[in-house]
Each structure stands twice: as C-alpha cells, then as structure tokens.
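Sat 14:20. Reprocessing the chain from the morning session after the first attempt stalled halfway. Input below, unchanged.
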Amino acid sequence: MADDNDKPVDALGRVLRDLRISVLDQCNFRCPYCMPAATFHDGYRFLTKEQRLSFDEIETLARAAVRLGVSKLRLTGGEPLLRRGLDELVGRLARIAGVEDLALTTNGVLLGDVAERLRAAGLDRVTVSLDSLDDATFAAMSGGRGDVASVLNGIERAAGAGFDAIKINTVVQRGVNDDTVLDLLEHFRGTGHIVRLIEYMDVGNRNGWNIDEVVPSATLLAEIHRRWPVVAVRPAYRGEVAKRYRYLDGAGEIGFISSVTQPFCGDCHRARLSADGVLYTCLFATEGTSLLPALRAGEDIDAIEARLRAIWGARRDRYSELRQPGGEQALKKVEMFRIGG
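Finished this time. Tokens:
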C-alpha cells in the first residue's frame, strides 16, 4: 500500500481512498429514478458474461487500487446479489492486505439467503436501499418489483448473521415518499441500524429529474427534530459523505446525504468501476476510461497501477458544485445502474 507521499493526488488535491465496484449491471427492481421499466424492459440487452469483469480481473484492479492507498471497497450493481458466487469474490477481496472496510449495497430482497455466507467470507458491512415502508409507495418506487416484507426480512437475517449497524439508504422524492419518512425512521429507531436520507439527485439521463422534486435535507432535519430532538455528530473521518445526527433520547442516529443543496465534492475521494471495466471518477461522469483491454492484453499489476494513477491524477470532477438547479441538465451522464451510486 502506498505511503502518504506516494498516493496519487487529483488536480484538486484529493487522494483516492474508496473504490466502488459494480459486479453486475442487471437488477431485479425497476426504480424509476435509476432503471425505469419503459427503457429496461424484458428485451433490453445487459452485459453478457464475457463482457463483464471476471473475479480475477476485479481482484487485480482492487489490488492495484489498494497499492495507491485505497482502503475501502464497496460492491454494488445493478443488484450485486444477482451475481453468482459473490461470496467467493468477497473472500478474495477481504484477504487483500490494506483493505480496512469491505461493504456491499443491495436492495435487500435476496439478502436473507446469503447474509451468513457473505459474513463468513469477510464482508464487513451492508447497506440496504429502502425508500418506504408503505407497500404502495414502495411498489411505485421499485417499479412494482419486490416487497417491503422481503427487504425487512433480509435486514433482520443480516443482523442475525453478525452485521451490526446496517445502513438503510432512502432516496427522498417530493410528492412520492416524503410523507412516509417519519414512519420509516420510527421503525428503525432503537434497532442500532442507521437510516440515511438522500436528496433526490440528477443521476443518469432517464429519471426526468426536476429540482422541485428535491426535499432539502435541512427541511427534513427540521421536521425530524420537531418529532425527535437530535444533535449533530462529529464526522468520523474527512470526506465522510453523510452528515450524522443522534437522537437525544438515545434511540440511535440518522444521516443526511445532501449532494444537491450541500455539495461535498471538495472532499470526494471515491472512484467507481463499472461491471465492464470502465473506471469513472465521479457519480455524474460523462465518460470513463476502460481498463478491460489492458487487463485482457495481459498487462501486469504494475502497469494497471500506473494506469489508475494517471487517471486519478487527471481528475477534476466537481459536478455537484457546478450543477445549475432549475437549469437544463445537458450533460450525458453515466447511468447509475452501471456504477452503483
């Protein structure tokens, strides 16, 4: 692993600490803000097995990234639990010296059946996407796929497998699920799990994003504070995405991810790898760099490390700071289902 003096620094002085790895572009949900069913129908052509990174290729890229100072790896999708043998990949990544935090983001429907295997393989943490506990609202936001009971079962079984403080990611959209937020928070208060409320973002090109549908975190915080008084918690580390608060009555904590109203580009240390081997240096990137040809041409890990260093060194991304609220979002951005959010 690189020492502090050898870590690559991007054009804005940010080091690389976090790599998010999409293992699959497919999903069993059709959330309108990510993978609307009108576009991603039964005839849509997702990546074939041959087009996706193999576990060997993912491990090579992860090892190269760790050499450059990455200490946090997160497996995403699509829905990563649709990838067969995922526990094998988890085991490989967990054994890389220098990986301090290995996590996974999932919609939770399939989690219950694999939680014990993933934990045994070395997975440290789980984040579950859950936008509402109301069945009708959940159905509207998942494209009619899955159900609340299955997700809650997955969370419960994951907790039973030893995953503490599971994070629950909730995208809040005005007029869609903002009226169900307090019920969701009430359900998880006192459980040890941490709900993170995420401002609705203009990810990808297909969700018809409108600034009027964003519920500012400050608005939600005020509403929550009236119901259950909270106090701010100091960040655990520089670059922590969520601003955290704890309930004064001791019932746990919540977080807010506020990319629209309170951009945090200045402390962003994350890169994202798509399932077909393209490295993106921003969630809102318009293009990335494919590493698949180099891998399949047999380049060794030193050469791959050099490529990663060069890509990060040229990085200038700060989309959320440049966003024009209410203006036309003209950039053709990478779709979120390809890089996991």
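Residues 55-67 form the longest helix (13 residues).
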